[in-house]
């Protein structure tokens, strides 16, 4: 494991020794107590339960000893160089206590106290001051407003909540990082209830100094950690998080993350809890999925996906193969898989033939594969059918959803399935229906000991499987990225870029724009129109005119010289009325475009980096909000796949007498804008709306272009 961890302050990077914080050989409890119901007493009781073998120092102003351990009166009485000091003091005394820790050369502190950034602006200022003190001194602070951590690997519980003594063994482990202490405990309970080993449970609270991404970076370097389960309400350093995600992917360590905030009220809740502003949730989703983070939407999915990936951290790309002994389950799987986006595989002829050989002639062979009553006479079919499904190259995950049957039948099922699953590289998921109806203890022990992800709800299993298959697809997609683009020949001035300059940028990228030019006089306008050919459109041009139509800045379908001259005069009058004093760069004269399907392709840059958006354009972008947010390095093939996932994708095919649209040309625009955003960081926003899409092979035409440059 790495010895140090670097986190970023607003000014300079600081280096902290997270080994000393999370694997301390010496600990001091400031505010120790013999009362197990108190915070200080709870921490001490946990350490004694785990039989912590390092040096343990107690600080208490009112006691000389606790449980036979001597106490000192102040932090100043501690020996120098203690690894971790737990500060159980009032919020108002935290700053003074941290200063005392600095004087004693303490490596890290844990602050449970609340009343900081989550309480309002005054608390935020106090937290920022405290963070600055720690950064300047190189003290790794966990918290404030946190519940500490439990290190199950070394037996170090630095939390006040009651924790049970658990071993970790040699099996793959789940590490837990959560900004919410209650959620951290909830994930721990879920893993332990499935007999899945937990290595670390770290509740980060307000993250004044150490953030989730710092701790994840440390955890993924432990070869025994198979998965990191993460709950965050905001990410302090998005670029570092993405870098950590890339490193986790290199190591084959999935990060499963639950990040609330997709709704407006969800954003408000995240802000009130962490005292931090929530970022753009959709942009975050696009960015983290692009780095193959398994993003989940519910706590159930967080538990279930972590359980699957703990056993199968590198699932292959593919679709679902399903084996059941219930016709009802077979029928429900079709509907539910479609609802959650879990595709059912089309079986290869070879696998279909093998499955046919396993059942009587009257059994219909398909996927989902319903073995019916065959298992009563031949229990081995539960294993042989699983093995056959695993052979299919189209299958990436196998789901076994069965009625349990008698205790003896349950054991026959596990005896048949476990040896097959033990050697499987593809995930094998087992579901015994019946909700909480008790199953045979011998069967349950065999299943738990085998590590097969086990469910009582088929719907929960399939939801989790959909996330796992999306994760597998994201892993594969990381090997399919668009190449870097060249920088622009010139970068426009900061601010809004006039349309005519923006269109020149598009033309330089190879994106088709209407024929046209900028006119500064009526005579120039007439000359340009004649060269283009009538009819034409004229548009007022100035950086301040982001929405030209609202001020009479667009006049269309001008048929001759007389109409152009009249429109020229009308245009300047409109601008003088709506924008008095605004000096126009001139008027853009363009040929009228023929009709096609209006779409929008845009891009933006924020703390998560650049992303590209594609969707229905014109007025539909606001009315229907049908758009896909894509990573800026998306490949052409992947862009085509994403465009075809639009709700209105039917409009891109032959529709009511209209030809199929040129989806490949749309994808080319997406890739070109993505390359531009990556090569030119000064550009913060692009909007091509509408992008008119013609029939297959006829390409696209950008009718408007808005660029924002910083």
Automatic annotation (TrEMBL):
Keywords: ATP-binding, Ligase, Nucleotide-binding, Tricarboxylic acid cycle. The keyword Ubl conjugation does not apply. PANTHER family: COA BINDING DOMAIN CONTAINING PROTEIN, PEPTIDYL-LYSINE N-ACETYLTRANSFERASE PATZ. SUPFAM superfamilies: Glutathione synthetase ATP-binding domain-like (SSF56059), NAD(P)-binding Rossmann-fold domains (SSF51735), Succinyl-CoA synthetase domains (SSF52210). Residues 503-540 form the ATP-grasp domain. This is Acetate--CoA ligase family protein. GO terms for molecular function: ligase activity. It comes from the Bacteria. It comes from Rhizobium puerariae. The keyword Isomerase does not apply. It holds the Pfam family Succ_CoA_lig.
